[in-house]
Hints:
Order of helices and strands: HEEEEEHHEEEEEEEEEEEEEE
Distance between the termini: 74 Å
Oligomer: single chain
Radius of gyration: 47 Å
Low-confidence stretches: 1-24
Shape: rod-shaped
Structural class: alpha+beta
CATH architecture of the largest domain: Up-down Bundle
Number of domains: 3
CATH class of the largest domain: Mainly Alpha
Strand content: 35-45%
CATH topology of the largest domain: Four Helix Bundle (Hemerythrin (Met), subunit A)
Number of helices: 3
Strand order of the largest sheet: 2-9-12-11-10-13
Amino acid sequence: MKCVFTLCALALVAVLESGCSREVPGNRSAPSPAAVPVTVAVVTTRPVDRTLPIVGTLYAKDSALVSAEVEGKVERTLAEFGDRVKEGQELAWIDTDSYTALAHQAQARVEQAKALAHGAEQELHRQEALRKTGIAAPADLDGAEAQADQTRAALKAAEATLAVAQLNVDRSRIRAPFEAAVADRIASAGDFVRPGSPLFRIVNDGVLKFIAQAPESFAPQVVRDLPVVFTVDAHPGKRFEGRVFLISPQVNLTTRMFDFGALVPNAERLLKAGTFARGELILERAVPTRVVPIGAVLSSSGISRVFVVSGTTVQSRVVKTGRILGDRMEILSGVSDGESVVTSGHGKLAEGLTVEVRP
């Protein structure tokens, strides 16, 4: 019995010691949170072109609707849709035989008028000689002078008729006004045409015009000779260039924008008139621009933020962003050069948290 009491006493003592040694939960100190692993990038300033995004359409610099200048039947067409022609190259003939015959007839009349004028001049000289000797009467001399004047006038009229006939012969052969490509052949051999009837539509695609629009606020900055770069869907990845050569003097009252055009060399004929193009107008070259990686910028409800690492903690900064430049974002305000911004690990960040920067 004595042994039983002794064992109970020892057990009670052990329980009491265990209870006394247990710590009170409220007195335990809270463990510090673990540092959030992040990657960072340094805010830098780079030389970047200041540009204005634009869209527009390519047009032929020169285009013409070649029309008939004389009346008659189209004898031949010498160019077809898609052909390239040189300046002065013949495109069609219009009743050339008839106009050539009329020119020969006018030439003959000129020769006849020359003969009559020559005879009248000879008679006038003879009458003047006789008058000096007193043989010829004054009336005969007056008649010779009148006849000479008349034949001179007839000769001039015949020569004018010949010039018109020769001009019609030249006009009966339709020629290209400039080097171009035939966009459309409207008339065919056998058609009867009158002056002004359209025959061909041609375009000069060796140089194109890129017509685009700019907001009215950019009016002072859009000036002649500024470079324009653009791309077209037909040649993905290839950039074409031109320079501003015309600027509209008025703003569209509906869109509040104005037109401008850039000349684009097209010697290889890669571009076609009527093509839609996207590009940018380069307003200024190599402007110092502050940038950060795109992944460093967090946007929500129209507000952009970055986390700036200061020592071992982070601060949330509101920034004003600009253009997207490849894999970088332009920062207009909110950070300074040399500061480090978080590029990954944002999901667990909050103001003042401790971070661990990893490569």
